[in-house]
Design a protein that fits this description.
Layout lengths: L5 H9 L15 H15 L3 H14 L4 H13 L3 H14 L4 H13 L3 H14 L5 H13 L2 H15 L6 H14 L3 H14 L7 H7 L5 H8 L3 H17 L3 H14 L5 H11 L5 H4 L3 H20 L1
Length: 314
């Protein structure tokens, strides 16, 4: 299993979807390694411009470091310079084809660009490389919920949860996303069973335990938001969870109010922000604009026939 240091775990709290590497570049010079470590410190604190400066300095000394390329790509992602981020992740993958973070973080970039099929493809590759690491599962769940295919990720998450017996700090979050995925796919029963099991096996004193209670009918939506109000991150998740639940219940108007809250107010470095961003950007296609209705076609045909008959009589 891919191991992450304390600094990477801190980065995970701040940047759930993205992770910096924690390994120093192999055979790097001491100076290059110093720049890389300093860049990672800036990256953890989301100081992307300074991180970028240090990674550039490191890569100037060691241009073939996959780890540094992944981290510079992550910094570019934080600055929303997505084309540059993709280029760095591509270069890292060429140098290290089994680099978990390169695929995970490239998937996040595709997610943020709303290219959901490519995002899911990259998360699947990351899972293939390290099936025990939870981050790609969570990211994949977010992308598939945004795409409307949440049930695919729900099955993957359930398999991972059962294999790990709900161990780890992300089991609760994973359970929520899986349950919402099952509901989105029109098959809520496996998700409901998963939620009941999660209530027994996850820490009831930690977020997102209130979300588990909400989805099992033990907490109201208002109470869920009250439980989350002390944390911007938790509030972002709570509003997104509410929106996804209301969407499965066909209450699109109420769902949209929560999606709008996330996009306008939510923590941007969270999976849920980008789910809301993607769902909000999806505009339904009006059939009247793309093709005339059957009634309109029939009416036009009648008019044409009438004109033809009139001309013939003359």
């Amino acid at each position: 299993m891919t191991k992450f240091s304390a600094s990477a775990r801190l980065a995970l709290i701040l940047l759930l979807a993205l992770l910096p590497s924690t390994r120093s570049p192999a055979n790097a010079s001491p100076e290059s390694e110093d720049h890389h470590k300093l860049g990672n410190n800036f990256l953890v604190n989301q100081n992307f411009e300074l991180a970028l400066k240090e990674f550039n300095a490191s890569l100037k000394l060691d241009p073939n470091s996959a780890a540094t390329l992944v981290d510079r790509g992550t910094a570019y992602n934080g600055l929303r310079k997505y084309a540059l981020a993709i280029a760095d992740f591509n270069s890292a993958i060429k140098l290290a084809p089994t680099n978990y973070l390169a695929f995970n973080n490239r998937g996040v970039t595709h997610f943020r660009e709303d290219d959901l099929p490519l995002a899911i493809k990259d998360f699947d590759k990351a899972i293939e490389i390290d099936p025990n690491q939870p981050i790609a599962y969570l990211n994949r769940a977010g992308a598939s919920l945004a795409k409307g295919s949440g049930i695919e990720s729900a099955r993957k998450i359930e398999s991972w949860l059962r294999k790990t017996d709900w161990k780890g700090e992300y089991a609760g979050h994973a359970s929520v996303l899986a349950a919402l995925g099952y509901r989105q796919g029109g098959n809520p029963a496996p998700g409901d069973a998963l939620l009941e099991e999660a209530l027994k096996k996850t820490d009831r004193l930690k977020w997102p335990y209130p979300a588990l209670k909400f989805l099992t009918g033990k907490l109201s939506g208002k109470e869920l938001l009250e439980e989350a109000e002390s944390s911007d991150y938790d509030s972002t998740q709570a509003h997104c969870f509410l929106a996804l639940k209301y969407l499965t219940g066909k209450d699109k108007k109420l769902a949209q109010t929560h999606l709008d809250w996330v996009v306008k107010t939510g923590t941007q470095n969270s999976v849920e922000y980008w789910i809301a961003k993607s769902l909000t950007s999806q505009k339904p296609t009006s059939p009247n604009k793309t093709s005339p209705s059957a009634a309109a076609v029939k009416q036009d045909a009648s008019k044409s026939a009438a004109k033809a008959a009139s001309a013939k009589s003359k």
